[in-house]
Design goal:
Blueprint (H helix, E strand, L loop, with lengths): L7 H7 L1 H27 L1 H30 L4 H19 L1 H29 L6 H20 L5 H40 L1
Helix pairs in contact: 2-3, 2-7, 3-4, 3-5, 3-7, 4-5, 5-6, 5-7
Length: about 200
């Protein structure tokens, strides 16, 4: 997956200030992400509401940006105005009716999981003689299971499942930041030791 770049040590020496900032902020951000993820799993409706508000805000900004672009470029383009109107209207609905917004996000996630499962099954069976096909099959089964979990309790399960899944994602991101910061610090310390020995 990831390959060690042989010039990474040279690049780290050139960007010493960037590396120092990354080491410092990766640890702080990682800890914050892990704490937020744990709180999100403990209180999933709160994290679901936060997620709905963030998604609605992004859609609201995108709607106004699309309207501004349509106004400046093609004022008579009804599709551009329709896109802006739908984005802004959906964002307002999600902000004023967060339970409906959570249900909509849950439905979108279930569709995503089912599409991922469909693609995973296709890829697994196309790779069937190879050993890796079982991994893709497992991935497809997990995605299909997550889609079913969302659909079975929809729309009420969305209030909890979105918060739990976002919380798990935040924890994984936090762990990745902590490990990334530790990795960069170890490589940087090795370079410092080599420089002192010379």
């Amino acid at each position: 997956m990831w390959k060690w770049h042989k010039n990474l040590n040279l690049e780290m020496n050139i960007n010493k200030n960037l590396v120092d900032n990354f080491k410092k902020h990766a640890k702080i951000s990682g800890i914050i992400f892990i704490i937020l993820g744990i709180l999100g799993i403990i209180f999933p409706p709160a994290l679901t509401l936060t997620t709905v508000v963030v998604v609605a805000t992004v859609m609201f900004i995108a709607g106004f940006s699309a309207a501004a672009m349509t106004l400046k470029s093609k004022q008579h383009d009804w599709a551009g105005w329709l896109k802006s109107f739908i984005l802004i209207l959906t964002a307002l609905y999600m902000l004023f009716y967060p339970a409906g917004g959570a249900a909509a996000l849950g439905l979108v996630l279930s569709v995503y999981f089912f599409m991922d499962a469909f693609a995973g099954f296709g890829l697994a069976f196309s790779l069937r003689p190879q050993k890796i096909w079982l991994m893709w099959l497992f991935n497809a089964i997990v995605s299909a299971g997550l889609g079913v979990i969302f659909v079975i309790g929809w729309p009420f399960s969305s209030v909890y499942l979105i918060g739990i899944f976002v919380g798990i994602s935040l924890i994984m991101d936090g762990v990745a930041l902590l490990l990334g910061g530790a990795f960069v610090e170890a490589v940087d310390d090795d370079e410092d030791e080599k420089g002192e020995q010379k």
